[in-house]
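hey
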């Protein structure tokens, strides 16, 4: 028996399943696939009522026949008249991305095109987007390096770790192994540490760029002794290759680093 908004389909192995969909504001919207005609029909009827209601995202319940992502998509389309396939709800100057009901991220409106086309995924504590066949760490879009530690290397100004608006992210240490130091008198310097059977202090330098290069130089010294060790090199795009080479050559590195016990 046919039912409005419900379509029978078959998997490659011949098993039957049911797809639900409906049209709203001239947009044909898929509501998902279901194992029974009844469940697909419930999703269709619920979606029709949802777009006529004043329900908010917070009103979602576990017994809803629609999955949460589709629920968010429909409410955003109803309220903002913009269809976005990912679970995004538009605000005036920013938007919310619902990774799930408990994890809601906030982004600047200028990022809307990107996240409309790129779905955020989570693996452990890390967030990724699939981009040109690669998994791109979400933090890297905002200048946060993969080695960065929250509170030490970067911070969220309003203390909301879900708020990725550009004005809310402060990068404290941009480079691998570099730690910004402020003395009691307000003097700024940059301490360099590198992992060699624990953190080894390479030295302290007056500028962030010099410290980043000192880390690279220390890494090169260690790798000459133990080639299997892997260190991410700092890339300093503000310096020309010749200027980088001059600083690299002249930077003092402790002789003790060459005699460290860096056994595998």
């Amino acid at each position: 028996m046919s039912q409005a908004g419900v379509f029978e389909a078959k998997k490659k192995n011949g098993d039957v399943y049911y797809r639900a969909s409906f049209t709203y504001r001239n947009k044909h919207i898929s509501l998902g696939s279901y194992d029974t005609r009844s469940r697909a029909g419930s999703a269709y009827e619920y979606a029709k009522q949802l777009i006529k209601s004043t329900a908010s995202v917070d009103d979602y319940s576990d017994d809803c026949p629609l999955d949460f992502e589709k629920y968010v998509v429909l409410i955003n389309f109803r309220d903002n008249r913009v269809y976005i396939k990912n679970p995004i709800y538009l605000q005036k100057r920013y938007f919310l991305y619902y990774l799930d009901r408990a994890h809601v991220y906030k982004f600047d409106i200028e990022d809307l095109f990107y996240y409309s086309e790129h779905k955020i995924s989570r693996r452990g504590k890390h967030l990724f987007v699939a981009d040109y066949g690669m998994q791109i760490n979400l933090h890297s879009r905002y200048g946060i390096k993969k080695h960065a530690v929250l509170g030490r290397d970067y911070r969220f100004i309003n203390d909301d770790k879900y708020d990725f608006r550009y004005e809310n992210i402060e990068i404290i240490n941009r480079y691998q192994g570099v730690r910004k130091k402020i003395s009691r008198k307000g003097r700024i310097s940059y301490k360099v540490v590198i992992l060699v059977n624990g953190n080894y202090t390479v030295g302290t330098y007056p500028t962030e760029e010099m410290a980043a290069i000192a880390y690279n130089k220390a890494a090169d010294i260690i790798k000459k002794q133990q080639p299997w060790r892997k260190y991410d090199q700092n890339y300093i795009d503000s310096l020309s290759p010749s200027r980088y080479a001059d600083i690299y050559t002249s930077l003092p590195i402790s002789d003790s680093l060459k005699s460290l016990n860096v056994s595998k």
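DSSP finds five helices and 14 strands in the chain. Helices lie at 37-50, 68-80, 112-117, 208-225, 241-250.
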